[in-house]
Amino acid sequence: MPITKIYRWIVFLLAAGYCLRMILLSDYTQFSGPFRFLTVWALFCSFFAASRMMAIEEGRSTKRWDGFVSMTAVVNAMVVYLYWSLFLNDPASVTRDGKLGEPYLELYLHALGPLLQWIDATFIHRAFRRMTSAFLWLFGLISLYIVWIEFAVQPLATSPKGTVTQGLPYPFLNSLLPADRITVYGTYFLAAAVLLMVFTGIAWGVRRLFPRSKGRQALPDSPGNAA
Q: For residue 32, what pLDDT is reported?
């Protein structure tokens, strides 16, 4: 069995297991339960991306999903950076009691899971070829998430509470005025665009330093199969 197939099975099964864990074992006392968090959105994007990589690996599909795979890598990077920077600065800003949760869960969601997806996207699948498609996916998902938490989650959830409002999934957001939250969201869009360019540059370097053999190159590098 090719090593890439083994790797992708591991990535897929891990993502599937953690998705099931989120659905079945999460706290649903607040509206939408775990689906309030961008981390969980990134997890499910990783699961879908892993399923598409398996389909390509096993010859069941020729659709590359380059834009979606690239977007998923960037969102994972945002999740990792935002989580750890906020946690290290003030643990209570992203956790309920200021303490790291279950290590097997937190370390997968905010470290191992994203790393596994980045490796596939950059070194195996070699995404980051269609910047317009990736940016549109990225803009669409982040916009949808912001609308979701501001107009669905916040009015229907009662915790966490802040000095300004309540219900927004990350505690620090509840202590910001709407104008300040807009500024924060704007910086997230900017950070996403910068990360997309960084990943694109890294992927370009990988393709130049480690060109594929002709046999492996036919499907992955065919423009007609890009999405």
A: 96
Residue 205 exposed, middle or buried by CB count within 10 Å (0-12, 13-18, 19+): exposed
Query: What pLDDT score was predicted for residue 218?
Result: 40
Which three-class secondary structure state does DSSP give residue 159? coil
State the residue for tokens 């999903």.
65
What distance in Å separates the CA atoms of residue 180 and residue 208, rounded to the nearest whole number?
43
Instruction: Check residue 102 and give its pLDDT.
Output: 84
Interatomic CA distance for residues 179 and 177, integer angstroms: 5
Q: Is the pLDDT of residue 213 over 70?
A: no
The overall average pLDDT reported for the chain is 91
